[in-house]
Fold:
Amino acid sequence: MTRVIVTRAQREAKRWASDLSAQGFEALALPLIAVGPVADTAALKQAWRQLDNYLGVMFVSANAADYFFASKPPSAPDFSAQSGASTRAWATGPGTARALLRLGVAPQRIDAPAADAGQFDSEALWQLIGSQVRPGQRVLIVRGADAEDGADSAQGSGRAWFAQRVAAAGAQPEFVVAYQRSAPEFSGTERELARQAASDGSVWLFSSAQALANLKAALPGQSWLRARALATHPRIASAAKIAGFGVVCESRPTLAEVVAALKLADEP
Structure:
C-alpha cells in the first residue's frame, strides 16, 4: 500500500494521517506549515465589535475561523441563531464550515460550496454568494499572514481574486489577519524522511502551494524528479509541477476522493 506524506499544518496533518491510516495506508504527518496566533489582536477585536456592519465574513480556512473566534471580546455580537445580527459566515470548503459549526455558528448563517462542488475555493464560494453582494456593503476576509508579511499586509495569497470580485460589485473588501504562518523547523529525522520520500515511491499530499515552497527551501538542491504528488487544487498541482515533481495528480480535498486517488496510484 502507498505511503502517504501528509503536509498540512500539524493539527490537520495528524487528523488526515489518522484517517488515511484507518483506510489502510501508511500515512505519516510531516507538517510543512506552522501556524500560530498574531502578536497583536487589536484589529481582530475591532472586527468583532463591528460584526453587525459586515454583509459577510469570509474565512479562508479552518485556522482562520479558529484564531478569529479565539480573539472574540465577551460583549461582541456573534453568529448564533439568537443573535440579532444578520452577518453571514462564508466558508471556502467543508473543513472550514465544520470548524464554524464547532465554534458555535448557527448552520443557517453559513454559506459554503456544496459537497459535490467541483472545487472548494474562493471561486466556488463566489459562485454561491456573489449575488448577495451589493454596492456600499462591507465584506471582511479573515486570513493568515506569512511571518515576513507582518500583520499589516493588505492581502493574503490567493485571496485577491475574491476581494476583486467584491470590489467589482461595488462593495468594500477588508482584510484582517487572524493567524501567522511560518516554515516549520525540521528535525534530523524529519529531514531524512523527506529525502527518502523524494524517491522511494511515497505520495506527497499537498493542500497548499506554500507547503511546497517551504519544502523546497528546507531541502535546497533536492531533486524531485522521482517524487509523486497528489494536489487538492489545480493551482497546487501547477506549483508541484514547477517544483519539479515527476508525477503530479489532482483530487478534490475530501477524504473519499483522496483515498480513491491514492488507490489509483497503487495500480500498476
Q: What stands out?
A: The chain has two domains: 3-33+185-266, 36-182. Residues 91 and 115 are 12 Å apart (CA to CA). The chain is about 35% helix and 20% strand.
